[in-house]
Amino acid sequence: MIEFQNVRKVYPNGTVGLDGVNLTIGRGEFVVIVGLSGAGKSTLLRSINRLVDITEGDILIDGRSIVQAGPKELRRMRRDIGMVFQSFNLVRRMSVLRNVLAGRVAYHPAWRSILGLFPEADLRLAFDALRRVGLEDKAFVRADQLSGGQQQRVSIARALAQQPKILLADEPVASLDPVTTDVIMNDLKRINRELGITTVVNLHVVDLARRFADRIIGLKAGRIVFDGPVEAATDDVFAEIYGRELASAGWTPGGGTKAEGTPAADRRPEFGAATEAPAKAVPATDRKPDPGPGPGASAGGRLAAAPPPAPPAPGMSAFRLPDGVPAGDPPVMERSGERSVLP
Ligand SMILES: Nc1ncnc2c1ncn2[C@@H]1O[C@H](COP(=O)(O)OP(=O)(O)OP(=O)(O)O)[C@@H](O)[C@H]1O
Ligand SMILES: [Mg+2]
To answer: Are 35 and 246 in contact (CB under 8 A)?
Structure first.
């Protein structure tokens, strides 16, 4: 369970990212966060695993404050939280398998990961995760040889290899085509159902939110303006979240704009249907701060350092994958000093 208690985030430059957020997300839920660019979606998502430090309030994960957690506790808590980014964040020149195994590093001492030593159990987890996204046949392919959609599936597999209780996805399909978008969203939904992983996804396309969310949370100027089941998220609700002035200017909540003749470049990507061109390809971490949602935004109205390397522990069966495995090269298994090629 994730609990936000009176959460406020003010960035050093004075921008309010979140304001008075109270929110409870139950175990196993599939929640979609919607809102205009700058509404605070990423801030909210990133505060859950403390990639963003909040200014006031508290965030509890299964009753424990991640806000107040010390470094060791924070590391432990983050193990339970997988994250998927718009820009995939894979190590492009490494194999798919090696990227997925990166999901296991928090479970081992740093030296072991640096050496690329993973227990066999991790290997099984990595292959299981790849199977869940239909990519086990790509395990030994270099990440940069995959399509964008496949890379995003690898990043989902990496998150799964963490065996997380919570999966956070920040605009996971914003740079993908419509068909691939559906594949990824279906993967996330299926994984949520099969494994009961609490899933929180940021999306800016209303049509997708409608099709995949169980519960929708609408953010506007850092505040929650709607929180309810997808069935309750009517056109009026979306008009409120996205601003009535924009709705009356031609935007239809079902996706797309009424102004058929408007050149694609002039359209606001936030309102595009899934059929529109990729909205943005800038990695979240590289983004320039947005100017904010503007003065018209309503504030309220709730509609509803590594130690030196050491040898593996005696008896430990370890798996070693060299850095940057070339395409097609199987990894090498080290068993008590004996090397054998994996099947
Ligand atoms: N590092 C930062 N420094 C200052 N302001 C920031 C920073 N990150 C975000 N902001 C501001 O906080 C507000 C919320 O930003 P956030 O990135 O959470 O919005 P968002 O809903 O994810 O938008 P988008 O759809 O564009 O990703 C915006 O006004 C933004 O400009
Ligand atoms: Mg964002």
So the answer is: no
**pLDDT tens digits, residue range 295-329?**
333 332 234 333 344 444 443 334 444 343 333 33
pLDDT at residue 341 tops 70 = no
In the chain, what are the domains? 2-80+164-304 (3.40.50.300)
b/e map of 179-211 (b: 16 or more CB within 10 Å)?
Answer: ebbbbbbebbbebbeeeebbbbbbbbbbbbbbb
Q: What is the mean pLDDT of the chain?
A: 77
CB atoms within 10 A of CB 4: 21
Q: What is the DSSP string of 56-115?
A: EEEEEETTEESSS--HHHHHHHHHTEEEEETT----TTSBHHHHHHGGGGGGS-HHHHHT
Residue whose tokens read 């399509």: 147
Contacts of 233 (CB under 8 A, 6+ apart): 209, 210, 213, 216, 218, 226
Bridge partners of 18, per DSSP, are 9
pLDDT tens per residue, range 94-149? 999 999 999 888 888 777 767 777 788 899 999 999 999 999 999 999 999 999 99
User: Residue 82 above 80 pLDDT?
Assistant: yes
Mean pLDDT of 271-276: 30
Estimate to the nearest angstrom the gap between the alpha carbon of 117 and the chain centroid: 26
Q: Which of 7, 8, 11, 87 to mutate to test the pocket of ligand 1 (most atoms within 8 A of CB)?
A: 11
Dist. CA 177–CA 274, nearest whole Å? 8
**Looking at the chain, which runs of residues are DSSP E strands?**
2-10, 16-25, 30-34, 56-61, 64-65, 81-85, 117-119, 166-170, 198-202, 215-220, 223-229, 317-320, 332-335, 338-341
Look at residue 38 in the predicted model and tell me its pLDDT: 94
Can you tell me the distance from the alpha carbon of 2 to that of 24, in angstroms, rounded to the nearest whole number?
6
Confidence (pLDDT) at 245: 55
Q: Which of 43, 203, 225, 242 to mutate to test the pocket of ligand 1 (most atoms within 8 A of CB)?
A: 43
Closest ligand by atom to 285 CA: 1
What is the reported pTM? Answer: 0.76
